[in-house]
Design goal:
293 residues, alpha/beta, Rossmann fold, six-stranded mixed β-sheet, 22% strand, elongated, binds adenosine-5'-triphosphate, cell membrane, transport
């Protein structure tokens, strides 16, 4: 739990991350994700409850926990006075990594993150995606057992995001444990083995993306334009639906039957589509709001 004066930013949440998995915190801005990450990183003390990292209390074992963690913060906090390579070396010093070893790791990480061509350039010459990749490389310098990423692809274009996703999947394949926050549904769906959906400091649900979708939204969603005929048809069929602007979204375990009925009743006046359900539908069903900004 985390309280800032009157505001409860993280409100009695419970979660457990398993070794080797990618665990996500998905939620809108202000949900409490960053605050939770900072408590795990031992840089923001909790104001209640218990929190253990590597089975150690965050209050009593800060130093040891920090030495075994890698952190990718939301903001780009690279040192502008140094080159790509030197940023890694300087960071390695905080962990007391011997120079030779630091140089070896830095070279290796630059290659892994596809930054070797930018080894000697200043930070201002890097693209947004390259900077994020460098921050991830920097977080790996101490060979952490757990990597924490706060919005790893925030503000990046699709191509830059895909490259980072690929790197994160590689890291998982190598046996790393990853905890990430995101407000991007596709990122959560693609990367996370399990996740919690957070809103207003609380955890709404926890599970594997596919399970959450199946439990809370069904496999497919039928969408139809909002007309009186369509509503009458759905009421007659006794199925659940939500209104999303001019569109009706139907949650049902027999989407194709419902779509057929709708097409018949609406006599093809209104477009009817069937699409796979997503985490966006889960969020909408749980909160009545859209996660998109
Ligand atoms: N240092 C602070 N002092 C006071 N309130 C804070 C502080 N840090 C965060 N908050 C508040 O706590 C709540 C949760 O913020 P938090 O940054 O954890 O959300 P988030 O889910 O990570 O969102 P975002 O993706 O925008 O960072 C917000 O209402 C925020 O204003």
């Amino acid at each position: 739990m985390k309280r800032f004066e009157d505001l409860v930013a993280v409100d009695r949440i419970t979660f457990r991350v398993r070794e080797g998995e990618v665990f996500g915190f998905l939620g809108p801005n202000g949900a409490g994700k960053t605050t939770t990450m900072k408590m795990i990183q031992c840089i923001s003390p909790k104001t209640g409850g218990t929190l253990e990292v590597f089975n150690m209390d965050v209050e009593t074992h800060q130093r040891e926990i920090k030495s075994r963690l890698g952190v990718v913060p939301q903001e780009t906090n690279l040192d502008p006075d140094f080159s790509t390579y030197r940023n890694l070396l300087v960071y390695a010093r905080y962990f007391g990594i011997p120079k030779r070893e630091a140089e070896r790791r830095a070279e290796e990480l630059l290659a892994f993150m596809q930054l070797d061509e930018k080894r000697d350039v200043l930070i201002e010459k890097l693209s947004g995606g390259m900077k994020r990749r460098l921050i991830i490389a920097r977080a790996l310098i101490n060979a952490p057992e757990l990597l924490i990423l706060d919005e790893p692809t925030i503000g990046l274009d699709p191509q830059a995001r895909h490259l980072i996703w690929e790197k994160l999947r590689n890291l998982q394949a190598q046996g790393n444990t990853l905890v990430l926050t995101t407000h991007y549904l596709d990122e959560a769906e693609r990367l996370c083995d399990r996740l919690v959906i957070m809103d207003n400091g609380k955890v709404l649900v926890e599970g594997a993306p596919a399970d959450l979708i199946r439990e809370h939204a069904g496999s497919d969603i039928v969408e139809v334009e909002r007309t009186e005929k369509a509503i009458a048809c759905l009421t007659g069929l006794g199925v659940n639906y939500d209104l999303a602007g001019d569109v009706i979204q139907v949650f049902t375990d027999r989407p194709h039957d419902v779509a057929r009925e709708l097409l018949e009743v609406c006599q093809h006046e209104a477009a009817v589509t069937v699409r796979p359900a997503t985490l966006e539908d889960v969020f909408l069903r749980l909160t009545g709001r859209s996660l998109r900004e």
